[in-house]
Amino acid sequence: MIKKMPLSLSLKKITKRKHSDTLNTLKKYYQYLTLQGLVNVEWSLICPSSKRTVKRQEIEILIKTSKVRCSKNKKDNNIFYLNGRRKKDYVKNQIFRNYIEQMKKSNLPCIEGHYSTIGYFLRFLKQQGISQLELLQYDSIKKYEEHLATRYNLKEINKTTAYDKLLKLKSFIKYLYMNNIVSFKYDIPHKFKGNKITRDNEYVTNEDRLALIETIIHMNSRHLQRDLATTLIFVEIGCRPIEVCNIRISDVNITESTLTLFC
Fold first, then answer.
1. Fewer Cβ close by (within 10 Å): the C or N end of the chain?
2. Is the CB of residue 87 less than 8 Å from the CB of residue 98?
3. Are both 76 and 95 inside the same structural domain?
4. 123 and 144 in contact (C-beta within 8 Å)?
């Protein structure tokens, strides 16, 4: 469960923030409060977007009002939040929600991709007459593969998209298997994996790398060490931006001079 932030602590934090007298800043902090589970009502429903002076009492009323509206809104059971943004739960599956909540704890930037992709799969199952994941059989997965193959043949999607959908499905099936919801594991068929992606600009010369680093140094950035560290990780390892976004302090082992990356 998400530990809710006490109201007094929330108000204390927001009033200490610089320029906290504008609704624009308050809106950004309100998105942070939704991630803490303190509020779960869309910002536009409770406050206009224009800038004006906001008093501390108004902030407290704003948060309390959001709780009241949340309790009166009958459709709130179908709404949840990803990265501070309101999402409609078209699937209405508690196991799916639990899976998303577990991913939210990992703070994965790719969580929205999992939400839409697995949601698409569950809606496909519903069309096949399967509304409970406990009844999921391997045959249904094969039908889903055929469905993606048909869309690929009709040029509605490319092979990379089909593979990405199955890759996220594999992660979801693994979650179901680990929680004893299904009795099978899943591996992506070789026909969906396709050929290795090639790039014309795959290699960068050492001169270009040095020029990039020198440019960062001469920019006199306030966060020079951070910018250099991030750039050197990209240059030396060749990882993707999403992998750098996932890096935490606990992933750095100073003793062994190692860095663990997750995607």
1. N
2. no
3. no
4. no
Does residue 159 sit in the same domain as residue 182?
A: yes
Same domain membership, residue 180 and residue 121: yes
Please give the residue range of the domain that contains residue 132.
Answer: 90-192
What's the token pair of residue 233?
A: 């990780």
Question: Each residue of 54-75: pLDDT tens digit?
Answer: 555 555 665 555 554 444 444 4
Q: Under 8 Å CB-to-CB from 225, ≥6 apart: which residues?
A: none
Whether 199 is in a domain gets the answer no
